[in-house]
Amino acid sequence: MSKGAELRLVAEGGRDMRSDPDLAASAARGHEADFAELVRRHQARVRGMARRLTGSVSDGDDIAQATFLKAWQKIGSYAGGTFSAWVCTICWREYLQARRKQKIEIEFDETAEIIPFERTQSDEVGDQMDLNRALEKLSEAQRVCVVLCVASGLSHREAAEATGWPLGTIKSHVTRGVAALRKHLESSHVA
């Protein structure tokens, strides 16, 4: 594509109108600005997915950063299809790798002082905390499937490809996970 043709694909307001596969092909040829556009388009989905998988903002952001670094390194292997599914697959693998490396160590500090605090949060923050707590109550498989399909917007087929799990298993975990979330959230608002 000529430089002039590339410029015509940028709409008024500076938004790049090229498709994800076109941007990925250009990024594979070394055009960092095109990869930056892909990151801009998909970072919210990847960060949200990673944060929900880990249950932590900072750990999720670390995994999202590792995801885009790996995506940049592997951009030449992107073979078309939904870029979002491709990058979410990388995110899933980065999460699994981080989880394998993680060592769970609990130490009890007898000298620690317990400091009580008051909860004065808005309803929105409280609802977010309820959702996070409800996600934590799901089995890991259900949580992963709900995060991939509901929160990240992948199709069941894309989630199956990302995880390597059978399509029927993904559908089952999403259905059961969403039902469990609804039940937990309804009971928490009644109390």
Task: Give the topology, please.
Layout: H1 3-8, H2 20-28, H3 32-54, H4 57-73, H5 83-101, H6 123-137, H7 140-151, H8 156-163, H9 167-190
Task: Summarize the structure in short.
With 191 residues, the chain is mainly α. The protein is 70% helix and 0% strand. The termini are far apart.
Describe this structure in words.
It is a single chain. By secondary structure, this protein is mostly helical. Helix content is 70%, strand content 0%. The protein has 9 helices and no strands. The protein has helices at residues 3-8, 20-28, 32-54, 57-73, 83-101, 123-137, 140-151, 156-163, 167-190. Helix 2 (20-28) crosses helix 3 (32-54).
Q: What percent of residues adopt helix (DSSP H or I)?
A: 55-70%
Order of helices and strands: HHHHHHHHH
Q: Which value, in Å, is the CA radius of gyration?
A: 20 Å
Morphology call = elongated
Question: What percent strand?
Answer: under 5%
Largest β-sheet summary: none
* SSE class: mainly alpha
DSSP, total strands: 0
Mean pLDDT: 82
- Uncertain segments of ≥5 residues (pLDDT<50)? 1-8, 104-125
Q: With helices defined by DSSP (H or I, 4 residues minimum), what is the helix count?
A: 9
The end-to-end span amounts to 61 Å
List keywords for this structure.
191 residues, 0% strand
